[in-house]
Write a structure and sequence with these properties.
By secondary structure, the protein is mostly helical. Helices cover 69% and strands 0% of the residues. Helix 1 (3-22) packs antiparallel against helix 2 (27-59).
């Protein structure tokens, strides 16, 4: 996913959140938007993880191909 796609998907996810929070929409519409939001959130999370790995490789040139990067941008605590 290119950076432009990432930004567009993030903007769409934010728009979904705003719509669900502030609009009078049907349950069916809410569920469809929720489903779209979950898909977008998973794609965005995947892209962020890939970016983290790229940063780790760039900042740690001694990292071997089979080593797991230790650097994380987002704490999973």
């Amino acid at each position: 996913m290119a950076m432009k796609d990432f930004e567009q998907n993030l903007a769409r996810l934010e728009a979904i959140q705003t719509t669900v929070k502030s609009s009078e929409i049907t349950l069916e519409e809410s569920l469809a938007l929720f489903e779209e939001g979950v898909v977008l959130a998973r794609e965005l999370e995947k892209e962020l993880k890939e970016a983290e790995q790229r940063i780790e490789i760039l900042t740690n040139p001694d990292l071997k191909d089979d080593d797991e990067p230790e650097f994380t941008l987002m704490s999973q605590e």
